[in-house]
Amino acid sequence: MKGITILGATGSIGVSTLDVISRHPDRYKVVALTANKDAERLFQQCQQFEPEFAVMADDHAAARFADLLKDAGLQTRLLTGAGALEEVAALEQVDFVMAAIVGAAGLLPTLAAARAGKRILLANKEALVMSGKLFLDEVEKHNAELLPIDSEHNAIFQCMPADFVQGMDEQGVTKILLTASGGPFREMPLDQLADVTPDQACAHPNWDMGRKISVDSATMMNKGLEVIEACWLFHTQPDLVQVVIHPQSVIHSMVQYSDGSVLAQLGNPDMRTPIAYSLAWPERMVSGVESLDIFDVARLDFQQADLARFPCLRLAYQAMEQGGTAPAILNAANEIAVESFLNNELSFNKIAEVIEATLNASNISSADSLDDILAADSQAREQAAGLIH
Prior knowledge:
By secondary structure, the protein is α/β, with parallel strands linked by helices.
């Protein structure tokens, strides 16, 4: 039995992870579940999986959750406070940590999992975006395992040679082809983007995701963050990661080799596939996802990403080229801008403008320490908020 902590249990990745785990009760034991505000869903999960610990970040929600626990007589222990997420990520009885907290809030508990030598199932791309070298150094230093959960990076991982950490060139890899659906606005006239509503931006054509990630998909910032993540995960440079618009979301990504081969991983757009792959790796196990019917798909389309239509993607490439704290600044400004858009305080087409202005106004420094990264993150949030308000 492998003990598991799920950081972000009530989000879409957390729910999918629990669905996969429920199919293999002889292999996995849920040790801890965490959530931000959704006390009711977390309580339902605790009823089903009976974890030892639960963490609620929001104080009001924690009080509600405590009442639910007491009334039901559950033995799950509620933890609160700043260090609770890090505590459950590093518990001795935990083998695997699903890192599925959205945004910068997931950085510290994911680092705690690395320092505790856990297998990290990384759905929180911001941990690598913000602190790539520092994070990977901790993984190596403490003999942790890092497996990507994003469907694209998981696909790349499956198509890469086993020794890719020695360098892509040495293994005959010439390019990573990172696929993207293009989101809901890939064909919308540019002059209409200013009038896009949050509900329109959150209506992703292929995937069921949270609102923040859905907006990132619509702006293609999500793909930009994935470019940065791919560079760190696969030890490569941004010019060797090409974004390919693939509306069907059937090919999850591809790897191009020097002999002319291109290896691709295909499947239905369901996050339970990469979750099951990473839980069972190096084995395979049932995920609950139906096998892809290629005759039903019938056709696959591809086109180059238009950086004029998707300026957030251009900014992500730029930030990775700059290095240092630039990716952390990019991510922080994006989180503030997207939150403002979702609150109807900023128009959709202004998201990229806020991010670019924040990058231009910020001092890019080295990202050698966690303090440097967190300071850059905080300053960028203040800068972006000031630009908006």
